[in-house]
Write a structure and sequence with these properties.
The chain is of the alpha/beta class. The longest helix has 16 residues.
């Protein structure tokens, strides 16, 4: 770092949803100075002209220039664009990179231009993240689903999984699409990418790494009538009784400050605008039912990226991320 107390950060793709959330977090992070926010389409414009809630919060402007005088670079770009960015721009090897696209999440794609990316799910491999230089931030659905399944897979007792999950409109990105238009989204719901969602690959990579014999996860995602958040329900055959399952989950997440196991049924408002994941368990016959919920833009994207940054630089994992849910 440039000195013992300040991390100098750059953001690529600062005009989108994840870039805006990154900006909001880092502006209030006690150990970070934002050096630049890059946006090709908004260069020269004040940040608050795009992120209207930041008027009066910052005088920063979007930049068309990229500086190497930073300690960490966040790539808040679309899928496929991170590879292109690294191919077209010379970024100093001493700069740590945290990529929010899916470009480097799979082991077969984890190396690029001499950089090796580590999959950045802290509840899976915190120690590896702490020793790394480059992080592939997990996907939003992938985060919510994996946090519901990790304790079972780690124990080697995860059977075939059936999962449904519903996400808000911000999960589709800022660019307008027919299914993100208010007139379509309001009072509506729709399944999409049934059993073929792109996050299945990283989920199965994780599960297979913990439990090589596990082969089957069936996932149907839904578009929901709200702006942000993900609520997932998974079920699988499990011989543990409910008390034993809770003990397993509580033991697994004991050292992880953002994932909390709740004895009471959870709801989406408990996690929106926070970096938390909440998990609740039920037992019905031989099936263990696992509910998990996150904010797709925070624990599912920018919040988790800052959590990873904290780990990379030896900070308290929760620094700058003690955010308040909006319960009403």
């Amino acid at each position: 770092m440039s000195n013992s107390s300040t991390i100098r950060a750059g953001i690529i793709g600062g005009a989108g949803y994840t870039g805006g959330e990154m900006l909001r977090i880092l502006l209030n992070h006690p150990s970070v100075e934002i050096v630049f926010i890059h946006s090709r389409s908004n260069a020269g414009e004040a940040v608050h002209t795009v992120h209207g809630d930041l008027i009066g919060e910052t005088d920063l402007h979007f930049s068309s220039e990229i500086s190497n005088d930073i300690d960490v670079l966040f790539l808040c770009v679309g899928h496929g664009e991170a590879k292109t960015f690294l191919d077209n721009n010379k970024i100093s090897n001493i700069i740590k990179i945290i990529d929010l696209s899916q470009d480097f999440r799979l082991q077969k794609d984890a190396a690029r231009n001499g950089r090796q990316f580590v999959y950045g799910l802290p509840e899976l491999q915190k120690e590896e993240i702490q020793k790394s230089q480059n992080i592939a931030n997990p996907g939003c659905f992938a985060t919510a689903i994996q946090l519901g399944l990790l304790p079972l897979a780690k124990e080697g007792i995860l059977n075939e999984v059936h999962t449904t999950g519903i996400t808000g409109s911000t999960g589709a990105g800022q660019k307008m699409q027919p299914t993100s238009h208010f007139s379509w989204r309001a009072n509506n719901i729709q399944a999409y990418k049934s059993l073929t969602h792109q996050h299945l690959n990283e989920i199965m990579q994780t599960i297979s790494g913990l439990q090589p014999t596990h082969k089957s996860l069936n996932f149907i995602p839904w578009r929901g009538d709200f702006t942000r958040g993900i609520y997932v329900t998974s079920y699988t055959q499990c011989d543990l009784n409910l008390d034993e399952a809770y003990q397993l989950y509580n033991n697994y997440y004991a050292g992880h400050p953002f994932t909390h196991v709740s004895n009471d049924m959870i709801d989406l408002k408990q996690v929106v605008n926070t970096n938390k994941c909440l998990v609740h368990l039920e037992k019905a016959g031989d099936n263990l039912i696992i509910h998990s919920a996150i904010d797709n833009l925070l624990k599912g994207a920018s919040g988790q990226a800052v959590q990873n940054m904290n780990l990379l630089f030896g900070l308290n994992e929760t620094e700058g991320l003690k955010l308040k849910a909006t319960s009403f």
